[in-house]
Amino acid sequence: MTNAIDSSLITAFQDRSATIGIIGLGYVGLPLLLRYAEAGYPVLGFDIDPAKIEMLEQGRSYFAHIPSSRVSAVSSERFQATTDFSRVAEADALIICVPTPLNQYREPDLSFVVNTMDSLLPYLRPGQVVSLESTTYPGTTEEELLPRIESRGFTVGQDIFLVYSPEREDPGNATFHTQSIPKVVGGHTPACLEVGVALYAAAIDQVVQVSSTKAAEMTKLLENIHRAVNIGLVNEMKVVADRMGIDIFEVIEAAATKPFGFTAYYPGPGLGGHCIPIDPFYLTWKAREYGLHTRFIELAGEINSAMPEYVLGKLIEGLNTQRKALNGSQVLVLGVAYKKNVDDMRESPSAVIMELIQERGGEVAYSDPHVPIFPSMRRHSFDLRSVELTAESLAAFDAVVVATNHDAFDYALIRKHARLIVDTRGVYREAAAHIVRA
Q1: CATH at residue 96
Q2: 421 forms bridges with which residues in the sheet?
Q3: Pairing of strands 79-82, 330-334
Q4: Which of the residues 24, 199, 327, 433 has the least number of beta carbons within 10 Å of its own beta carbon?
Q5: H or E element: which one contains 284?
Q6: How many domains does the chain have?
């Protein structure tokens, strides 16, 4: 039954008078902040990184796929960005968009979610909705957020409304964006779901309701595990096809002409991004609590995780044909972002490939127009700058590894001047003595 609080909150979402708080202004939070601001809501953005706050205050974007013009168009009118979490009380909605990585044992690391929730607790008030968007295992919202909110004496579903709505951002995708990607929402109670739907309905074109926060959490995992498993399949097919002398990309393109029952997935040097390499392990970890072993999912993870080693082997084979050893060779890796045309390096297999090359005595460099300086990462560290691609620079390397197929690369120039090309993305379809498919 609708009470006075959720009725007024729903009305505030509908008439756009509600203040939207976005916690975490990364690849998920910033697009969501901009979407709500563009939809006419007052928005408060929270982040612990003062550099991000400063750039937003100046109307500047810190992501290549989000133009600064989009930030500056709304910066002075619709949103404020801050590191001051005491302002949480000003927001009617608190949408949590923080990372959920894996620890060194490939187990879920919920420290960002838990610490964020703990930082919000002192400032929660009746009439707010808390929505978690971070990808996680089924049960997280109920097991981690719910008891913390209740510890403040709030009744969830009456005083505070709790929902889970998984993010579906795809950085650099020109076809789909925050507004047009359907939003799955699950609530802890029917009242929570009603408020959650109202929160997203005015900013997102389609809202998809599910019966619980657990169902919403599992939905996100299924989406990304489906992709991870199919990529694992096609990566294994790539290895088989290569041994048989068959072009796997030709096979995929032919299979994709079937108008039903087939979806094209493409092989690569490994999995990257904030979801696909990580999400399967969230489910496999949680499944063990129920005495289950997700063998199919884990096998796909093993195949995908082995791809950087496969690329390394192909690089060594290619150098051997030129009577060279990897030890002492100069190797240029093209593309360190995890996907084409973005600057997103999260879980990028390129970094793993670079480390493998170094471990075996190779001297590694990289070129990526979207990543001019190799950033500090949790598990990878290189003191490198992007190499400008010229005939002279390409010819100076013993091998070039095409790891990410950015459109900005001049592939004809690379083909002409590189001594050896190890192609992990199917860029070069015609056979050549100095091109190795990987």
Answers
A1: 3.40.50.720
A2: 400, 435
A3: unpaired
A4: 433
A5: helix 279-289
A6: 3
Task: Specify the DSSP class assigned to residue 80.
Answer: E
Q: What is the 3-state secondary structure (H, E, C) of 10-44?
A: HHHHHCCCCCEEEECCCCCHHHHHHHHHHCCCCEE
Residue type, 108: P
**Active-site residue identified among 32, 120, 193, 275:** 275
97 is catalytic: no
Q: Which of 308, 357, 352 is nearest to 328 (CA)?
A: 357
Structural domain ending residue among the three candidates 146, 178, 211: 211
Query: CA dist 436 to 215, 218, 312, 320, 414, Å?
Result: 44, 40, 11, 12, 14
Per-residue confidence in pLDDT tens, the chain, 438 aa? 468 788 999 999 999 999 999 999 999 999 999 999 999 999 999 999 999 999 999 999 998 889 999 999 886 777 899 999 999 999 999 999 999 988 777 788 999 999 999 999 999 999 999 999 999 999 999 999 999 999 999 999 999 999 999 999 887 787 889 999 999 999 999 999 999 999 999 899 999 999 999 999 999 999 999 999 999 999 999 999 999 999 999 999 999 999 999 999 999 999 876 666 677 888 888 999 999 989 999 899 899 999 999 999 999 999 999 999 999 999 999 999 999 999 988 889 999 999 999 999 999 999 999 999 998 877 778 999 999 999 999 999 999 999 999 999 999 999 999 999 999 999 999 889 999 999
243 and 154 in a single domain? The answer is no
- Residue 216 resides in a domain: no
- Angle ∠(65,53,126) on CA atoms, nearest 5: 105
User: What does DSSP say about strands 363-367 and 20-23: parallel, antiparallel, or unpaired?
Assistant: unpaired
* CATH number for the domain harbouring residue 264: 1.10.1040.10
| Antiparallel, parallel or unpaired: β 20-23 and 43-46 | parallel
161: number of Cβ within 10 Å: 30
